[in-house]
Design a protein that fits this description.
Length: 258
C-alpha cells in the first residue's frame, strides 16, 4: 500500500509541474536571476576546489526552463550541461531566452526516478537539484539515483532544518471564491538536515557541507494571499522567508563524492 501511495504522489507531482502557474517563474529567472540563484553561484564558487578544474559535464535534475544552468554556466564556462525535466513544455522558454548559438546546454525530457536508466553510472562530474526535493513525496529515491550518476559533487537547494524532524506538508491554495488552484495540492516538505546528511554518507558521500540561505532583500506579502515568498525580520534584524503561512528554511548543500 505504501508503494502505491508513493506512486500516486509522484504522479501528482508530475501534474503540478505542468501547471501554467510556473511559466512566469521560469521566465522571470532569465530576465532577472533570483537572489537564491546568485547565492547558489557564489556557494558553488566557494565550494569547488577551482572553477578551472576539469568539470567536464553537469546535470540539473528538475531544470525547468534552464535559467539556473545558464547562470551556473557563467562560472563554469568549460562545463557542458544537461537539463532534465518531466515538463518538456518549459524547454521552450530556454529557446526564447538563450543565445541562438549557445551550445553548452542541452535538454532532455524524462522522469527524475529513471535517471539511472537514462545515463550511465558516474557519467557526470557535477549534479544539481535546485528547489526540487521539498516538492517531491520524499528525497531518498531521487538522491540515491542522482548520486549514482555523479562522480565529484552533488549540489542541492531545498527546505531543511537543524531539528531532528521531517515535516511533510500538503498545500491547498484557493482563490477568493475558495476554488482550489489548478496545481493544488502540492508538497512543501521540510527535511531534517542531520538525517539527510547521514543518508548521503550512507550512500558513499565523503563529505556533506551545508549553508543557510539568508536573503538580502525585503519581499512583500503577495496580494493574492496564496503561496509566494515574502520576508519578515526577526528581533536581530535577520530576514526570514515565508510562503503563505509556512516558514521556508532554505539550505544550500554540497555533497562531495570523491
Amino acid at each position: 500500500m505504501e508503494g502505491l501511495k508513493n506512486m500516486a504522489d509522484r504522479e501528482k507531482v508530475k501534474e503540478t509541474s505542468l501547471s501554467d502557474k510556473g511559466y512566469q517563474y521560469h521566465e522571470s529567472q532569465y530576465k532577472k536571476p533570483k537572489r537564491s540563484t546568485i547565492a547558489l553561484c557564489d556557494f558553488v564558487k566557494r565550494i569547488l576546489p577551482s572553477t578551472n578544474s576539469p568539470y567536464n559535464n553537469a546535470i540539473d535534475v528538475g531544470c525547468g526552463g534552464g535559467a539556473n544552468m545558464y547562470s551556473l554556466s557563467k562560472i563554469l564556462p568549460e562545463t557542458k550541461w544537461t537539463g532534465l525535466d518531466f515538463a518538456e513544455k518549459w524547454f521552450s522558454i530556454a529557446k526564447q531566452y538563450l543565445p541562438h548559438d549557445y551550445d553548452k546546454i542541452k535538454f532532455v525530457q524524462g522522469d527524475f526516478y529513471n535517471v539511472t536508466k537514462m545515463f550511465p553510472y558516474k557519467s557526470f562530474d557535477l549534479a544539481f537539484s535546485i528547489q526540487t526535493l521539498s516538492w517531491l513525496p520524499g528525497y531518498e529515491d531521487v538522491m540515491e539515483k542522482i548520486m549514482d550518476i555523479t562522480k565529484k559533487w552533488v549540489f542541492v537547494t531545498s527546505l531543511f532544518s537543524d531539528f531532528n524532524v521531517d515535516v511533510f506538508s500538503s498545500v491547498f491554495e484557493y482563490n477568493d471564491d475558495w476554488d482550489p488552484a489548478e496545481d493544488s495540492p502540492h508538497n512543501y516538505n521540510i527535511y531534517s538536515f542531520g538525517k539527510f546528511k547521514d543518508y548521503c554518507i550512507g550512500l558513499g558521500a565523503k563529505e556533506v557541507i551545508a549553508e543557510d540561505f539568508v536573503i538580502d532583500v525585503d519581499l512583500p506579502v503577495p496580494e493574492s494571499k496564496q503561496m509566494g515568498t515574502y520576508t519578515i525580520k526577526n528581533i536581530n534584524g535577520t530576514r526570514l522567508q515565508f510562503s503563505g503561512p509556512l516558514f521556508m528554511p532554505w539550505k544550500m548543500i554540497a555533497i562531495r563524492m570523491e
